[in-house]
Amino acid sequence: MGGISVDASGASSIEGLWVCGEAAATGLHGANRLGSNSLIEAAVSAVRVAEAVAGAVTLAPAKTRPVILPPGTYPMPVRGILSRYVGVLRDEAGLKEAIRQLRPLAAQNDAAMVGLLIAVPALLRTESRGGHCRVDHPERAPDWARRLRLTLAEVESIADRILGAEAAARNVRASL
Question: Which of 15, 88, 112, 160 lies 20 to 30 Å (CA to CA) from residue 121?
């Protein structure tokens, strides 16, 4: 839903990853995420993205073998966590629980990393807008519009701080 920052050719900050359409944050359609706007944006952007990809991609040798994913990348354990805590209706407690469960999995599981990339910004965004509905923060906040941009390293650091703060609070309660 427009979360991946890209340049005019659709290139993201990750080398070799281009994005257009619903997933790209281009600003072409403003905050309106209606399906028709995403389709128009995809049609307009697709040509530029395809040209950029064609100019940057070198074909692999014909004898390249398919990549076999390691067993830890299977997404099933992550689906339950995301469905339960990061679904349509979200709140602080659920998002923190999702982060607590996803963080240890994220180092070996791509699906868990993607889940963490959703859960951490959702926790930080204390408003409701579009497909992001925080039941503990139901109103829109004008100061949040297009403000939150995080890198993978920042998401991991924030998740670690959240988990560290929770562990410290548990230790304090245990010592009382």
Answer: 15
What's the rounded Cα separation, in Å, for the pair 37 and 35? Answer: 5
Checking DSSP bridges between strand 4-5 and strand 133-134, what pairing results, if any? unpaired
Neighbour-count burial for 145-170, b at 16+ CB within 10 Å, e otherwise? eeeeeeeeeebbebbeebeeeeeeee
Is residue 130 a contact partner of residue 153, using CB atoms and an 8 Å limit? no
The span from the CA of 31 to the CA of 43, in Å, is: 18
pLDDT per residue over 21-57, tens digit each?
Answer: 777 777 665 555 555 556 776 777 888 888 888 888 6
Domains of the chain, each with CATH number or no CATH: 4-56 (no CATH), 71-175 (1.20.58.100)
Is residue 6 within 8 A of residue 19, CB to CB? The reply is: yes
pLDDT digits (tens, 9 = 90+) for 107-148: 888 889 989 988 998 999 888 877 788 999 988 887 765 566
CA–CA gap between residue 56 and residue 51 (Å, rounded): 9
